[in-house]
Fold this protein.
Amino acid sequence: MLEKIREGSQGPVAKIILGAVILSFALAGIGSYLGQTPEQPVAEVNGIKISQTEFNRAYQNERSRLEQQFGEYFAQISADPNYMAQIRQGVIDRLVQQELQSQLAADLGLRVSDDSVRKTILELPYFQIGEKFNNDRYLQVIRQMNFQPDAFREYLRKDMTRSQLVSAVAGTEFALENELKRAAALQQQTRSIDYLVLSKEALQANVDVSEQEIADYYELNASQFLSPERVSVDYIELKAEDINVESVTEDDVKAYYEQNKAQYIEPEKRRVSHILIDNSEDDDAALEKANALHEQLEQGADFAELAETSSDDVVSGEMGGDLEWIERDVMDPAFEEAAFALQNKGDISEVVASEFGYHIIKLTDLQPEQVKAYDEVKADLRAELEQTEKVDAFYEKQTEMGALAFEISDRLDDAAEVADVEVKTTPLVARNALPEPLNTPAVISQLFSVELLEDKVNSEVIELGDEHVIVVRVNKYEPSATKPLAQVSEQIKTRLVNEKASTLAKEKARELFAQVQAGKTLSDVASEQNLTVREEASLTRQSYTVSPAIVTQAFKMPRPTDAPSTDVVDLNNGDAAIVALKSVSDAQATANIDPQLQQNITIAQANKNYSAFIESLKAKAELNLPVVEQAAE
């Protein structure tokens, strides 16, 4: 609970790690402020405001998650204002749900114990190295997320308390034995059916489609027959990794090593343990307790045992007070001064005061300052020098390439020559079929801009990644246009034939169904119409050999009495069917219900009850939900 982690330590990694700890981190993680005033709440729950800042943090995290999920396509998705409005509303709904749960948990006096919080921290894989809790990793991650250990534990406690409440509602859901048996019986019930299908394909021979019908359909649905806009692209691509540079000599590497020798000094490290006594409530009592513990240590008490039983740093205390390896400029100044004043392994400091309380520090190991030998680092230095030369050459070429592409904007040859790359050309391709590296939102946006399409100029330099750029120009463009009738006539005819045949099949099915209702059997009707009656003696709800529409309808039909129950069904493929339900077979009640089936039934009931629980909290709460401003994006 002491370290001030250095500013450059794995920022993005730490955010990703902590973002995965608990679902709520994804909603309340540390995101960038988006310039909106926090005084304007996005919601108010029983008088508690959810600030614009909280919303912006959660919304920015959700955007980041979606960008990772959809990659380059997110730019296209986010261009839909309706979609992004749904995202914003979803973030608000989750924040409101969390606040409702927190308020109810507080009213009920729910609280997660220190031991539970400590155990959760120790078991979370995000704070482990080699499947073992690592205190350095733990402190580094939470500091990077702007948490002090105490504040992090309280944040985690609050989230675990909400989880405790949800578990009380959903996790304790159960079904009585007779309920499970009834549900299992319904799930495992089988039905015996006969059915016949009137296929639209069989009726297509009876369908005529006139040229006028085709023309009329074409006129009414012209937008369905648009050819995609197509473009042929000239482009030049420059990547640092493709640039050839002169070989780096051994003398260059040695000179670089000598110039930057300070970078290869491994600073002195110390491994320390500590006992912390929190003084936030009673400073005098804390100091007295710390002095008493120090006296016990002087009399031979075991440091690790005292740390485990008495330290207020519960995480390190679980490990005998161990904070693992530390360096200069990492710890609290007072703590650091005392720790680095210890001379020998096993030395114990006096009681040390810091902003966190009173500490007793033990030196458990030390590693003196070391300088890495040239042979250890020369391979890395050579690679670094070569990469530096590539990057320098890249930016020099990029500047010259961009300038010439702008000055001579009607071709790319000159810019390609100065960058030592070749001009590449694509055939005419549809907008959504552009090959790499053209199929990125930034490039597509430029290619289909008015400037490039109408003025026929080179684009600006477009960044595709680190030291990776491209310049494009439109070589040829074909706008989207309605295909001529002659080109789509057969397509329209096929579509109209299918539609008419499907209509005939449905009409015919209803005529035959009327005959069945009048007293004919399904077999009689099938024989007269030269159709085949198909049988499913043990149809289940999960059957895949029968059309889903038939399965669904069969399990909706009433149990047959003296005669089979019959009904007509329209199938998703345009066919129609007549179904006769002959019998229903209930599953035998068994003492041992399949555990997976039992779990599925219980989960379904739990989800239903949880949704009802949230709705009941909303109904009883005073909610004020202003419209989220578009600027949140």
